[in-house]
Amino acid sequence: MCGIVGYIGRRDVAPLLLEGLQRLEYRGYDSAGLVITGPKAAGLKMVKAKGRVRDLEARVPKRFAGTTGIAHTRWATHGAPSDENAHPHLDPENRVAVVHNGIIDNAAELRAKLGADGVVFASETDTEVLTHLIARSEADTLEEKVRQTLKLIEGTYGIAVMHADFADRIVVARNGSPVVLGIGEKEMFVASDVAALVTHTRQVVTLDDGEMATLKADDFRTYTTEGSRTTATPTTVEWEAESYDMGGHDTYMHKEICEQPDAVDRVLRGRIDDRFSTVHLGGLNLDAREARSIRRVKILGCGTSYHAGLIGAGLIESLARIPADAEPASEFRYRNPVVDPDTLYVAVSQSGETYDVLAAVQELKRKGARVLGVVNVVGSAIAREADGGTYVHAGPEVCVVSTKCFTNTVVAFALLALHLGRIRDLSVSDGKRIIEGLRRLPAQISEILTMEDEIKKLAKEYADAKSMMFIGRVRGYPVALEASLKLKEISYIHAEAYPASELKHGPLALIEPALPTVAIVPDDDLLEKNRAALEEIKARSGRILAVAHQEQEKADHTIVVPKNEDELDAILMGIPLQLLAYHTALELGRDIDKPRNLAKSVTVE
Ligand code: AGP
Known about the structure:
The chain is of the alpha/beta class. The radius of gyration is 25 Å and the shape is globular. The mean pLDDT is 94.
């Protein structure tokens, strides 16, 4: 959702901004715009376009020189996607330009007040109020004008501001929406996501909520919205620019599915302790005594991360014998939950920015809970807000549809479960068994990836379905949920996931030849129960595609995956179904990396 890029230095700014915007395209957007100025530019020059960054690029005039600029990709919230509603927003005199991520909750009230004062709005956006308020401020400095304006604002923001009378600087501020400064040699960058910076610099400063910064070509300073200076020491971004490239694949989704053996290897690296048959997770900030006193684990996440959390809860219950469950963070925060001091809360998020998860973490912390983060993006809001946690080290995930992060998050949960288990009652031999299973995962994932041609053929066979059912039991149920989400997200085929045990309680009524069922059938203690469900479906002439450890007689097709330890099988069984969703969507001609209506990071409610 929405992206910000800014630059101040000596280089021609428009191409830099366009390149930065292209790097943010993956987040999802519907319009884009940029504004520039520079020693040879008279005032602020702006171009905006509904549609893609390439539509914006087509509108940029040939002579468009400037060395300072801010740019934006917008995902509509207040007002439809249009040229007028695209950011930046300028005041009527073209002196102030603002780009904004987030939502201003009291925009309607502020618009009414400004309207009563004679302000005529050029857009329907909440952001435009910022522009008018900054332009109308009588403060002497741009910093003070912005600060005065922010005092009037309720809501979330990451903003970048330029002013024709203060052309030597860009002022930025953050409250609930990421702002990262990129520190260069006699040039400074700003973005809402490091993806837009890493081709130019890997030295970054991430602003905290309530922090502002002034960027000039050869220096920057940070301070609070109250005006007190803050210290900002640049850190080095771990991900390289090349990790954001397609690397010879046709889509990011395909690249990211294929990266899973390496990604899993990375999350395991340096963490296994063979001597004590356990793992070390340095950032948990939870000593053995505290770990022993946990009475319950509650995992919170959204979408795919929630599904990873469901598998994580199962792993924690089985390996550490601590009661655990997962809940969508978006639901949790609205039900005035009872916050229990003996419960360990775990927030899961690939991006580390998902608003519902962040808000749940903040609510929990306000009530005194201990919250761990299981997050992919280093230094992201949720990672910073949590008391400790672990990174999942999947590398950047660009496709809106999560694949490698799901797998790595589940592996990270297996590590957490093993760690907690070995502090509590998991035996050395069981610890060793799980470690050996974890070590087998990368090779087993590679083996599954060699089945792509077979899965592609299956996708052709099932792509004409109007609807699909996914079933699984206990550990297999979250796999079914995730596979169903994958399919609907990119193929737009309606899909439902049910516990196999619930079939008789309703969904069996849907079964007929036109509704294929994908069944998760691991070789574990529930094998016979799962087979019984296949019988029930077959008896109603339903088509069945099984993902199993051996051919299933009742299934029309079986994808046979390698067996691991029972507790870890779920990690492998989802992978062929990522490929199934991918090839089904290709078959239907869908835009794989940017499915309709979706954004990579959901930074609003
Ligand atoms: C995954 O395929 C989805 N696009 C979506 O469900 C996603 O997992 C969800 O929005 C949560 O995102 P997060 O992991 O970045 O918090």
